[in-house]
Amino acid sequence: MNSDLTTGCPRRISILGSTGSIGKSTIDLIERDPDAYHVVALTANGSAEALAAQAIALKAEVAVVADPAAFVRLKEALAGSGIEAAAGPDAVREAAAREADWVMAAIVGAAGLEPTLAAVERGATVALANKECLVCAGDLFMAEVKRYGATLLPVDSEHNAIFQVFDFDRKDRIEKILLTASGGPFRDWSRDQMAVATPEQAIAHPNWSMGAKISVDSASMFNKGLEFIEAHHIFGLGADRIEILVHPQSVVHSMVAYVDGSVLAQLGSPDMRTPIAYSLAWPDRMVAPVPRLDFAALGRLDFRAPDPERFPAIRIVREALERGGGAPTAMNAANEVAVDRFLNREVGFLDIPVVVEETIEEIMSGPLGTQTVDRLDAVRAVDSEARIVAARRSARRRFAAA
Ligand code: NAD
Ligand code: MG
User: Fold this and answer.
1) Residue 396 neighbours by CB distance under 10 Å
2) Closest atom, ligand 1, to C-alpha of 215
């Protein structure tokens, strides 16, 4: 039982992005103990039927689609169920602001920022999968967590691993953290091979099953770059104390190195239900139906430094973090646009880092380049301008290639 230990009542939970990969894994866990949870809100973008089926199965109070065009389908699918239906970004935010003890933030992209902030502003326990929130508005987001006394539990497997072995009371005794990276499906590919990579090849991740955007990010290693910034904000460490290490087996999910030479790691099968279960049961632990590690069968664990020539994303992200201001916001927005164009076969795989770098340069040398992004309107301004620039830069590369 994972119900509230003090009252015995079911815990009130909401899942933002419930139809996605993380959302479904979260539901897989709560469905195993349905009496322990009362589901308040479920949200999705446009998958109205899938969302309605989840809401009915879980007896949710409200189901919300961000895309207003999906509202009629949602309403029809929920007819007679007594479940409230709503649509539009404001409705997603309002759903996130409803009274719930635990909120899974699993919307993909910067679109997750405002709904997640709505949960933070209620002082909720927020299980954070949506790393883009921290990349596009990390200072603002962490300041709000502090201000409203919200509890932030990282779900991203690396950050969840670090969280489990990070001594927050002895932070000065921590030398650095080591973020592991699988290297993605193109880990051993040449630049020539990557130049003609298809979306299907990019989303075929060797170890993890995930949504399309994060899968492409894993292939380009922008994912590790985004996680670098995510770790910087969650653990309050400078870039010089965060190292990235390629570890093809995805068994060591990340590590913390202490001043006495000790290195603590969290290990597990590559299954997101472990970090989700950790955040759902925290500070307790719950049984999770994941494959157990068999070390004898594994035999070995490999580690190597990432290759900056084949994967320029890590350098681009580091430079954006060093540059500060709106650079990480622009970088995140440009990457979202470029990944979308790549998935639509409008640009090549290797165009992604080029579009991102060109967009950061254009934004940071323009009028928005001198702005601080510690307010939501400033974040929005940089984000939307970077999307325009990235779309134009993507179109240019497309015509150049044609
Ligand atoms: P996904 O694409 O499978 O699901 C995304 C969810 O967000 C869906 O429910 C979708 O309907 C919703 N959504 C999309 N656009 C939206 C919008 N504009 N407004 C509101 N809702 C919208 O993605 P995922 O793989 O589940 O990843 C979700 C987040 O978790 C991402 O930020 C990702 O980086 C992070 N994450 C995922 C994994 C993983 O294993 N999948 C691991 C670590 C971190
Ligand atoms: Mg990760």
Assistant:
1) 14
2) 25
Q: What is the pLDDT of residues 264-284, one digit of tens each?
A: 999 999 999 999 999 999 999
Question: What pLDDT, in 10s, does the model give residues 279-316?
Answer: 999 999 999 999 999 999 999 999 999 999 999 999 99
Class in CATH terms, 11-155:
alpha beta
Domain boundaries for CATH 1.10.1740.10 within the chain: 324-402
DSSP string, 25-71: HHHHHHTTSGGGEEEEEEEESS-HHHHHHHHHHHT-SEEEESSGGGH
Residues of the chain with CATH 3.40.50.720: 11-155
* CA 147 to centroid of ligand 1, rounded, Å: 26
Question: What is the rounded CA–CA span in Å between residue 150 and residue 144?
Answer: 8
The structure's pTM equals 0.97
Ligand minimally distant from the alpha carbon of residue 24: 1
Ligand minimally distant from the alpha carbon of residue 181:
2
CB 136 within 8 A of CB 108: no
Residue nearest to atom 40 of ligand 1 (CA): 210
- Within 6 A (CB) of ligand 1 lie 17-23, 44-45, 47, 66, 92, 106-108, 111, 129-132, 156, 208, 210-211, 213-214, 272
Hey, what CATH topology would domain 324-402 get?
A: Rna Polymerase Sigma Factor; Chain: A (1.10.1740)
Read off the pLDDT of residues 96-155 as tens digits, 9 standing for 90 and up.
999 999 999 999 999 999 999 999 999 999 999 999 999 999 999 999 999 999 999 999
